[in-house]
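Re: weekly structure request thread

Next one in the queue (72 aa):
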Amino acid sequence: MPLFFLIPLCTALATGYFFKKSTDEIAYLAGVFAAISLILSLVLAPWQIQFGLLILVFVITNRLLQDNQSKQ
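Done, posted below.
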C-alpha cells in the first residue's frame, strides 16, 4: 500500500496547528492550505482507507439522525 497520502496529511496537520496558534492574517492562508492538503491526502489515500472513512461517516450520521429523531 503506497503511503504517499501521508505527505499532504502531515502538511495539513502542521499548518492546522499553525492556524490554531497564530492570530495574524497569515493564519487564514495557513487554514486554506491545510484544508486543501487534507482534501488532497484523502484523494491520494488507498481505497481501503477511503472505504473505512466512508463507513465511519455512515455510522456517525446514522447515530446523529437517531438522536435527532428521538428528541422530536
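Residues 6-71 form one domain. Residues 19 and 28 are 7 Å apart (CA to CA).
Next request, please.
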